[in-house]
Design a protein that fits this description.
This is Lon protease homolog, mitochondrial. GO terms for molecular function: ATP binding; ATP hydrolysis activity; ATP-dependent peptidase activity; sequence-specific DNA binding; serine-type endopeptidase activity; single-stranded DNA binding. InterPro entries: AAA+_ATPase, ATPase_AAA_core, Lon_bac/euk-typ, Lon_lid, Lon_proteolytic, Lon_Prtase, Lon_prtase_N, Lon_prtase_N_sf. It is found in: Mitochondrion matrix. By secondary structure, the protein is α/β, with parallel strands linked by helices. It folds into seven domains: 143 residues, LON domain-like (Archaeosine Trna-guanine Transglycosylase, Chain: A, domain 4, Roll), CATH 2.30.130; 90 residues, Methane Monooxygenase Hydroxylase, Chain G, domain 1; 57 residues; 178 residues, P-loop containing nucleotide triphosphate hydrolases (Rossmann fold); 68 residues, Helicase, Ruva Protein, domain 3, CATH 1.10.8.60; 81 residues, no CATH class; 184 residues, Ribosomal Protein S5, domain 2. The protein is built from 30 helices and 24 strands. The protein has a seven-stranded mixed β-sheet. The longest helix has 53 residues. It is elongated and about 150 Å long.
Length: 901
Amino acid sequence: MRLPQRVRRKARRPPPSSPPTPVLRTSSRSLHCLFFPGFYMPIYVKDQKLLQALIENRKRSAPYAGAFLVKDEEGTDPSIVASPDSSDNKTIDSLKGKELLKRLHEVGTLAQITSIQGDQVVLLGHRRLRITEMVEEDPLTVKVDHLKENTYNKDDDVIKATSFEVISTLREVLKTSSLWKDHVQTYIQHVGDFNYPRLADFGAAISGANKLLCQEVLEELDVDKRLKLTLELVKKDMEISKLQQAIAKAIEEKISGDQRRYLLNEQLKAIKKELGLETDDKTALSEKFRERIEAKKDKCPPHVLQVIEEELTKLQLLEASSSEFNVTRNYLDWLTVLPWGNYSNENFDVHHAQQILDEDHYGLSDVKERILEFIAVGKLRGTSQGKIICLSGPPGVGKTSIGRSIARALNRQFYRFSVGGLADVAEIKGHRRTYVGAMPGKMVQCLKSVGTANPLVLIDEIDKLGRGHSGDPASALLELLDPEQNINFLDHYLDVPIDLSKVLFVCTANVIDTIPNPLLDRMEIISIAGYITDEKMHIARDYLEKNTREACGIKPEQVEVTDAALLALIENYCREAGVRNLQKQIEKIYRKIALQLVRQGVSNEPALEAVIVTPSVEPTDGGSATIVKDEKLNDPAVKDPEEAKEPSLKETLVTEPALSTDTLSTPEGNKDTDGVKEEAADKAVKKVLIDSSNLDDFVGKPVFHAERIYEQTPVGVVMGLAWTSMGGSTLYIETTKVEEGEGKGALVMTGQLGDVMKESAQIAHTVSRAILRDKEPDNKFFADSKLHLHVPAGATPKDGPSAGCTMITSMLSLAMGKPARKDLAMTGEVTLTGRILPIGGVKEKAIAARRSSIKTIIFPAANKRDFDELADNVKEGLEVHFVDTYSEIYKLAFQNETETS
């Protein structure tokens, strides 16, 4: 900054020659401009010895020091590079003496110390200096020569022209930048236009040029050259200033354009509002909500209409920027979008429903019968009431798809949501509106999604409901499912009663034991036991195999899956109750078939255009002949080539010369006409045949093996029947003697038996001793023998009471040395008095007996009704005996065997 006039009068003129001068190093990083004569500059001195020397010089009336620029800092002298081992790597502040002297430019400025406050020293530049020699090292003190400008002619035209150009450039810069205005005004007032050396120093000092370039101006003593160097610097600054002005102008135009557009839009809105052509956002929202509810006004309940009117009034009073406005808007959006009083037209045609159910599912007659009963009641009443049906069964039996078929049969909208693992009541009944991000529960979302008030809602996995800190969802479902309560179902978010009495609820569960009793009491349970082998065969042939073949893009004539292969697949790979795994295995087979066909060169993609082919096609110089293959020509049923012709996408015909496969080629065989006949013959596609002999090539080794371990049942071994989550299975009970002696009677059990099954074994042991004492009084087998009872498949946990009668028969067989009847299987719980109690899984156990070629089955008499309700194809070929006491089983197992023998 230039020195003000009142300060200049007090500035002391330095002597023509100075005593040794302390050195002040100036860094380009800490200065916005180089220190030139005629300018003030504050610097900070960190070296305490140097600061003390400056204070003493000022007290001795010699307040002068030399200011020199460090020459090897970034931006000052890029030619200087310090070696890693040299002292140049030291910081400037730590250098002393000669090391510091080497790092300074020789030419600097003689500075008068005008004030010292703390470590800040204010300097006033007077004249140029050149270092001649060092006097002291710490603080660095040197001898200097005072430099003067070379003599010049003030009237020289070149100097005048250059100075005028410098001044003109500075004025141009003033037009684009106001930062230099005060500097230029100060120079004009205190220096004048014809002090050429000062003009050069001034221009270089206020420029934003590199400090190395400014150092060149400082070292230049020729006035003409100094002016030219300064002119270059200010010219560069002028270009930068113009560029800065252009950038600022572009940004300002953009900002002003956006502001202008915004103001015009606001004015346009105001004008349209005054003319009634447009309304504000709040009014538009209100009109939208009113239009929605107007169409439902006759069907909408009065209490809902009242709430909507209140919320619309509230919406008009709120500011659009407030959070309460968004909450009210969302609330009105949900209230007005719900299908108040809107019902779909139901179809009560029983024959139509029967047709749809048969199309979608094979078997399941009891489930279909219950659905048809529901439809029949609705037809007689003229309307249907919401019911709760719970489909219970193993995975993969089609519970979810049954719900979808029911909706299609009734012409109702279908909506499914799963509650498996659900632990938050808010998912069922919604959140309070006071919460951030609140939304209604699943039932309200369902009504919005389907658009009708009488959909069929499938609640999946209801037996897997969770329970957490957010409440008990099972209790919340009570209000949702109970026909006496859901006529006024209250969602926490909407906070208005909703009529769900017309909704048909269908729930699915794998087991009903985990469903809470109050919830289970409101459901009608329909058990789906699973599919027998015959049913799986029909499903695989009529549904799964057909759909999978189409999904893989395979034509029926390209593959054949025999019934023996499907039967082996069901028996040895897919014994579970459902057909989900069966579908996976069929998909696996067809993926491998697709790969085989592609490797043979088959492509079932339709041709994009027709090509006329003749046998005498010769390849041209640039390519080969094109032969088009028609799939129909591979069909042996086609006798006439004309029958194989089909129109292409361009409705032109493919002309084939003859039916012989010699003229055909696969997509891989389009190489050369001369070799087409031989390649086509080699690449003839063969139909893929899947039978029981090569099934393992497609699906691997069998997972299941024959359940019948013994062809001739040995002593102490009896076949029982069990129920598993995968359906029914046979279960052998084996008993043997491990130790004999008076008073040694005991029982050891193995086979991962549960507590209930262990108790059954103890009961069976007690009952067996009583029966043996009655039949053979002299036989002391149980009193003198330690028995070992084992149930094979030891890695599988087993539990339940239904093996009681089988265990008794096994023990008696060992005690009497008689084998039980070989074609007999039994199941039933036994009491200490020998009574046979009912069991579960009658259908599954009957299927398991048939699968093991067992013809004679013993069931408890209480299960006769369950067996009679089974389909005829399940009961076919079975001889079933229903018993009340074990004495009846004894006759069937042993006396009949004796007679047979």
